[in-house]
Fold:
Amino acid sequence: MTIPNVVIYTDGACLGNPGPGGYGTIVEINGTRTEKCSGFRLTTNNRMEIIAAIRGLEFLKERSNVIIFSDSQYLVRAITEGWARKWQANGWMRNSKDKALNPDLWEHLLTLCQKHDVEFRWVRGHSNHAENERCDYLANEAAQGSNLPVDAVYEAQIRRY
Structure:
């Protein structure tokens, strides 16, 4: 059985940070392109960047060879430089004093990455990269939507502070 080759393009947006946010994801499998986008009424740009990658990987029905393109250095470097795994191994602490942000999303993303062979690649944002521009458009449109759902984890977190 041949393992499918998949390309995922992602972007997140936030109108204010925090503020209403959205993500845009394009998944290309064997020449078939699927676009996904949605948003939340109150969230952060970094959460939207991570969720964009999560939604792309969740779309896959079988183990795949995946390349994820993102303009988020936070997302790409956290995976490629092993930060997220280190935070996980340290009980979601960045160091002895500082908690890692977005552990709920990193945990989910790391689990999804174990199901596939995933490579993350950084692309410069707003540099006329067609798929990145499209994801940016989708993310911003989603962030401007009406009746956006609650990012329950984020909102519960900010209520604690």
Summary: Strands lie at 5-14, 19-29, 32-43, 65-70, 117-122. The chain has a mean pLDDT of 96.
